[in-house]
Design the sequence.
């Protein structure tokens, strides 16, 4: 077989270090290692967002595709996108005691961004 690399299989050697574990211990070791690998990915996902993700969330909150653009753009312009645009709309609605829809409409109209800034940058 020309052109193929020979694989030096060390499976049996690596297997030796695992022989001392019971099935339950192997299962626990697997999940421990899996969590170690996945944890940084979850951290990145929880601490970061994108305009696309924020638009998707707003669409699921009932805003139209035409309405989500000014909401996302407004959050970006004010350095608030990392807070989550849906979260911003929600918090403004709670602060003003209005519906989420009304809060979104006010933000689209350019109103209440000062409230959002106060909420997320240390005020309220």
Sequence:
């Amino acid at each position: 077989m020309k052109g193929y690399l020979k694989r030096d299989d060390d499976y049996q050697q690596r297997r030796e270090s695992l022989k001392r574990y019971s099935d339950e211990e192997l299962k626990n070791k697997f999940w421990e290692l899996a969590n170690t690998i996945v944890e940084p990915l979850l951290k990145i996902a929880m601490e970061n967002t994108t305009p696309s993700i924020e638009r998707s969330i707003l669409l699921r909150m009932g805003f139209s595709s035409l309405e989500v653009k000014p909401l996302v753009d407004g959050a970006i312009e004010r350095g608030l996108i990392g807070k989550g645009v849906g979260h911003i709309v929600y918090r403004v609605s709670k602060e003003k005691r209005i519906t989420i829809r009304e809060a979104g409409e006010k933000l689209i109209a350019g109103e209440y961004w000062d409230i959002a800034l106060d909420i997320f940058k240390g005020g309220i």
